[in-house]
Amino acid sequence: MELLSEAFVYLCAAVIAVPLANRLGLGSVLGYLIAGVVIGPVIGLVGSETTEVQHFAEFGVVMMLFLVGLELQPAMLWNMRKQLIGLGGLQVAGTTAVFGLIGLALGLAWQTALALGMILALSSTAIVLQTLNEKGWLRTTGGQSSFSVLLTQDIAVIPMLAVLPLLALGSYHGGGQHGDQAHGGGHGGEALAALPGWAQAVIILAVIAGIIIAGRHLLRPVFRFIAEARLREIFTATALLLVIGIALLMDFVGLSPALGTFLAGVVLSDSDYRHELESDIEPFKGLLLGLFFLTVGAGIDFDLLFGAPLLIAGLAVGVVLVKFLCLFALAVVFKLQGADRWLFALGLAQAGEFAFVLFGIAGGTGVIPPDLLQTMTLVVALSMLLTPALFILYEKAIAPRVVIQTERAPDVIDKKGRVVVAGMGRFGQVVSRLLLTAGYDVVILDHDPQTIENLGRIGIKTFYGDATRPDLLHTAGLEEADLFIAALDDRDKQLMVVEHVAKTYPKVQILARARDRHHVYELERAGALLAERETFESGLAVGRRALIALGEHPFRARTRTRAFRKHDINMLENLRDNYNDGGVDKSYIDAMRAQSATLFELMRAEHAGAGEGRDERGWNPPPKGDATL
Amino acid sequence: MAKALVIYAHPRPDRSEINGPLFETAKAVQGVTPVDLYAEYPDFDIDVDREQQRLVEHDVIVFQHPLYWYSAPAIMKEWQDLVLEHGFAYGKHGTALAGKTFMNAITAGAKPDAYSQAGLNHADLRSLLLPFEATAHLCGMRYLAPFALFGAGRASEGNQLDIHRNAYDDLLKALVADRLDFEKAAAAPFLGDVLDEFLIKTGAM
């Protein structure tokens, strides 16, 4: 039962801490670390057995690299090669060098300095990608560059896993510390130790070639066979078997298991079973990695932190600062502009979760002395803890200022027209094209460069600029225009712009696109002459076609649709006074319900052929009893 | 063999008692092209090129409709206004319709005696339909007497509708087979359910 109770403690900690950390914007990695700190040093629920658990949990890293490999389709890598090798490669190499030199200057052995340099060069993929995704920055140039660097780092982990054991300091080598089977690169190949060097090399090459060839030609039929059996858990078992098998094989020949599974992942990345493999392995990886971070947290030496809090905090800030400077220099070299430069440099300035993994190996081989290892683990965790603060700094203090300076300046509007259209989305385009083809001069504003470029290609001139800005509306010539068409997609901006134009240019008539009935009322109150629900007429058009498809005569479908339309517009008129700015009250709901009931009765009566539907007013035959005819 | 174009207009097909069934009859006759104007152009956006092409391709044009205010339902007037263009249907170069045959196939609400000098309408049917006749003449077409059903409001009660449908069938088939005596048909006050006197006797030729 001990296993179960341990599992209960770990899971409990994770289930409480991780969602909380996520909610606070700290990311799940920090959540696990904090949970580990709480159950370990703080309340002492778990103790020395964490080291054992940690070795088991390290297998999560092997799985993670398998998944990284699955994500990396060779074609995609090839397309990104410039970014990966240039930006990413320089970041890893440059930062490693800078930290290495600092290490040397502080009197560390070169092996230790190099190991620390490599480890600190990595950033936190988990935290950064999640944040970029959440904030919608992934598609910006800064976000894309960050992604490339993170991807390079993920790949760079593999050679690092291989190199770290080679750096082992003489005094530690063979000191009985390598219990680390999962990462036993370079020193695990006992089975081959008896063979001469050339034979070892041949066998290693043969194994790698074997993985690639078997992955291409053998694994696919196997997975197809298993998949056709439609036994979900056996497919999962096969995926696990594959990962564990490759890890064992690699360990047997003395290579990094992570490297082997990564390779297998890449080979399988363009197979049909990629997504299934991903979703099968993903939860194991997530839990094992989580467990790994938990154990790292549980292993944190609080005496050390409280013994020298200033030193450790100073080191953490120092690491972030050095990384930031390296990244910023790279951003300048690679011509990232304004806000993108800051996002890139601030976002990647922390050390990452891979550091904990690599520390594990470095500790095992003794390349980093145990005291330093403890200190640096704290430093890495603290630097990760600083990340949300850096993103907040970027979002609140830097982005707003830099954006205004460097955003594409609004176009100079050298055209005058009787009509100004704000917003050239799906809606604005229809209106503008109608007016343009009818021969009117229309000044069109939009803030999406892509839209402007596309429209330019078909000969429609659109001016770049934010239509909610008063100065732009002024230069668009609203002073002399007769008509303003508000066709922005955003509900609130639309209201804002209508209000502004109505107040500032009282002579201009405003026609507005409305999202729904309530928006119509709001826009009318803001000063629009007419606000049209954007989907109303198209909905009617499809409804009318539906009546025809159901067998009604097209003219009858038209008449009924028009009756419905008329009634709905009446309802819009009648409910206007019941609508309050805050929303709807009971009188509104009651009025609406009554109106709907009337309409329902009407349409039903018509359908039954009673002919009394006065809303339709179609031609009706005179009564048969009329004697005068 | 001639080709006949039956252009039909009724704004309430769901409440039509006579014209709907009559149009079904027309649809079944070989050599007849049926056109339901309200179905094809429910929004009145008539495709002029297409309609002119149809006219060119046919020899006989029949307007089938209920008699509304001594004329046709609105879309038929719209059709005339748009399709019978100058330069196509009339004018110096407007000869596309010359030599074709035109007639109305109507249903009238009132009884036959209402359509006389002394009756309710103070005019006979041909006089009331003069705008159609004049239109046909301006376009160089021969105008035949209207094929008519009177008292349409009660026609569905007995077997009058069946008799009339048969007559319509005979008429359209005779038009397609060139067996209608145009001279006689043009001179009559209207064509009713007995068509024998207007047909060319094949055996006598």
From TrEMBL, chain A:
Pfam families (alphabetical): Na_H_Exchanger, TrkA_N
Domain RCK N-terminal positions: 416-535
InterPro entries: Cation/H_exchanger_TM, K/H_exchanger, K_uptake_TrkA, Na+/solute_symporter_sf, NAD(P)-bd_dom_sf, RCK_N
Basic and acidic residues: compositionally biased ranges: 609-618
Membrane topology label: Multi-pass membrane protein
Residue intervals passing through the bilayer: 29-47, 53-72, 84-102, 108-129, 150-172, 192-214, 234-267, 313-336, 342-363, 375-394
Bias kind Pro residues: ranges: 620-629
Locations listed in the record: Membrane
NCBIfam families associated with the record: 2a37
Family (UniProt): Belongs to the monovalent cation:proton antiporter 2 (CPA2) transporter (TC 2.A.37) family.
Protein name: Kef-type potassium/proton antiporter, CPA2 family
Organism of this sequence: Roseibium denhamense
TrEMBL record, chain B:
Source species, domain of life: Bacteria
Oxidoreductase in keyword set: yes
Pfam families: Flavodoxin_2
Keywords annotated in UniProt: Oxidoreductase
InterPro entries reported for this sequence: Flavodoxin_fold (IPR003680), Flavoprotein-like_sf (IPR029039), KefG/KefF (IPR046980)
Segments forming domain Flavodoxin-like fold: 3-170
Protein name: Kef-type potassium/proton antiporter accessory protein, CPA2 family
Natural source organism: Roseibium denhamense
Phylogenetic placement of the source organism: Bacteria, Pseudomonadati, Pseudomonadota, Alphaproteobacteria, Hyphomicrobiales
